[in-house]
Amino acid sequence: MLLKFSGDEEQRKAYGLSGLGVLAIVIAFLLPVLLAQIELRRELNTERIVFIENFHLVTYLVLLLVAIAAYLFTGKREVRIVQYQDCLVAKLLYWPLITFLLLVLSYASFY
Q1: In terms of Cα–Cα distance, which of 75, 78, 73, 64 is closest to 23?
Q2: Which one of 14, 19, 62, 85 is at 20 to 30 Å from 25 when CA atoms are compared?
Q3: Which CB contacts under 8 angstroms, 24+ apart, belong to 103-107?
Q4: For residue 64, which of 31, 23, 99 has the smallest C-alpha distance?
């Protein structure tokens, strides 16, 4: 799935970047993750959150942040940090943020 942020109207139409399009993509990714977590909880049968569920929690957070960034990017109000270089800040922070969150959750789980 390619989600291309662009200020050019022709590229937006070519890649289907709209508020509802991004919402559809996020829901399409959210549903399998949610079902996987439900199945995992059923198999483990614990009351606590186990370590492997941290990956689901990070995925939920990342999907929420992507949806917010896309909403702000396609919205009527221009948010300078989001609009800068076609959402460059969000693109640069994507993998470092995921890695940092997983590192923090791993540290909190094991120490």
Answers
A1: 64
A2: 85
A3: 105/51, 105/54, 105/57, 105/58, 106/51, 106/54
A4: 23
98 contacts 62 by C-beta, under 8 angstroms: yes
Our count of domains for the chain comes to 1
User: Can you read off the two tokens belonging to residue 103?
Assistant: 């590192």
User: Which residues of the chain register pLDDT less than 50?
Assistant: 1-2
Is residue 1 included in any domain, yes or no? Answer: no
Structure tokens at 104: 């923090």
Instruction: Look at residue 103 in the predicted model and tell me its pLDDT.
Output: 96
Tokens found for residue 41: 């909880």
Residue 4 lies in a domain: no
